[in-house]
UniProtKB/TrEMBL annotation:
The record marks 118-119 as: Involved in the stabilization of negative charge on the oxyanion by the formation of the oxyanion hole. The lineage of its organism: Bacteria, Pseudomonadati, Verrucomicrobiota, Methylacidimicrobium. This is Arginine biosynthesis bifunctional protein ArgJ. It comes from Methylacidimicrobium cyclopophantes. Heterotetramer of two alpha and two beta chains. It comes from the Bacteria.
Length: 403
């Protein structure tokens, strides 16, 4: 069988063999939208979890982090509309009850169930509604339930984010699928997002750990909308082994292909999150080249992506490269301004730290586009970094100024 990766655009977490899902409206959200999702494997398998680096972590993050350390997973229960963060002992008890109720319903240990929540911080979960919602979700589990699950985790997102992949792996086919949410409070380590990835591949624990961490580093940790880091960020990867392929290890030839597939899937979902960012009108790819090392390249990229002045100029369709120069100058990266070149979609704006002489209208034509790339070459070394970010709009402010 030819080794190839084929996207399944209508795929989801139920694309791989043996995975079921559902989504219901249980009343957490006042307007009756779907607000609870369940993803379940027909049998237990390996699991990897990656979580927010925010020290103010929500109860479901604390619970799921503890369960993930055991390395075995069967199901994920997710709710939107309420973060269950900063809710004290009650919040932890509620997250635990959610896991226990799912575990009882599918017949597995509580430690094999993971809990994710997203929404407003500091508000207790309406557990009466959540209990009924879990019971409904258990009753609606289906191989066709992936789309509903993708809807059940949305907050300010405008569309569901889901995808599947088919991979020719040796003599067999394996499948991967995923759902994600995220629109605001997006910044790495991780971003304001939830993501569940499923696969029917059989992998060793070490191979799954390495593949998941690399894929997250290349995708969800390279997007930024507003520079804020959430209390609830979670990425879970479940592998149930039902493809019955020879176990993929770090040493096996198939690992490289699985890594490529997982990175592709997470990369597509991460881009969907940025493109659906709260109130955004531009998606901007920042490429840093010629840095002294990759750490400096990352520092320069993040300084540009987080600069409010830069983001506002993009929204105003003003190619104000002076703001880019200022951002890299204070980024902490080694910078020699007389070596810096800057390009907008290949159109040079800065040469050796000074105006390149390009007609302003050509640069303005670039920043009028809904998506464009800015390449900043620091001209010092070989360090490079890529980051996907957005502009900052009046609509973003309206969405986030509170009730």
């Amino acid at each position: 069988m030819k080794e190839e990766i084929t996207p399944i655009e209508e795929g989801s977490v139920t694309t791989p063999r043996g995975f079921l899902a559902s989504g219901v409206a249980c009343g957490i959200k006042a307007r009756g939208e779907m607000d609870l999702a369940l993803v379940c494997s027909e049998r237990s398998g390996r699991v990897v979890g990656l979580f927010t680096e925010n020290r103010v972590a929500a109860a479901p993050v604390l619970l799921s982090r503890r369960h993930a350390a055991l390395g075995v997973g069967r199901a994920v229960i997710l709710n939107s509309g309420n973060a269950n963060a900063c809710t004290g002992a009650t919040g932890m008890a509620d997250a635990t009850e959610m896991a226990e109720r799912v575990a009882s319903g599918i017949g597995c240990p509580t430690e094999e169930v993971f809990v994710c929540s997203t929404g407003r911080i500091g508000v207790p979960l309406p557990m009466g509604k959540v209990r009924k919602g879990i019971d409904q979700a258990l009753g609606r589990l289906s191989p066709q339930g992936g789309s509903d699950a993708a809807l059940g985790i949305l907050t300010t997102d405008t569309y569901p984010k889901k995808m599947g992949l088919k991979v020719g792996l040796g003599e067999q086919e394996i499948f991967l699928g995923g759902i994600a949410k995220g629109a605001g409070m997006i910044d790495p380590h991780l971003a304001t997002m939830l993501c569940v990835i499923t696969t029917d591949a059989d992998l060793s624990s070490e191979a799954l750990q390495v593949a998941a961490r690399r894929a997250v580093a290349e995708s969800f940790n390279r997007i930024s909308i507003d520079g804020d880091c959430s209390t609830n960020d979670t990425v879970l990867v479940l592998a149930n082994g039902l493809a019955r392929n020879p176990t993929v290890t770090l040493e096996s030839g198939e690992f490289r292909l699985f890594q490529s597939a997982l990175s592709l899937l997470m990369g597509r979902l991460a881009r969907m999150i940025v493109e659906d960012g709260e109130g955004i009108s531009k998606v901007v790819e920042i490429l840093i080249e010629g840095a002294s090392d990759e750490g400096d390249a990352e520092r320069a990229a993040r300084a540009v992506a987080h600069s409010l002045l830069v983001k506002c100029s993009w929204h105003g369709e003003d190619p104000n490269w002076g703001r880019l120069m200022a951002a890299i100058g204070y980024s902490g990266a080694a910078v020699d301004k007389d070596r810096v070149d800057i390009f907008y979609n290949g159109v040079q704006a800065v040469s050796r730290g000074e105006r390149a002489g390009t007609a302003g209208r050509l640069l303005r034509e670039v920043v009028r586009l809904p998506q464009f790339t800015i390449l900043i070459d620091l001209g010092i070394g070989s360090g490079h970094f890529r980051l996907l970010t957005t502009d900052l709009t009046e609509r973003y402010v309206r969405l986030n100024k509170g009730e």
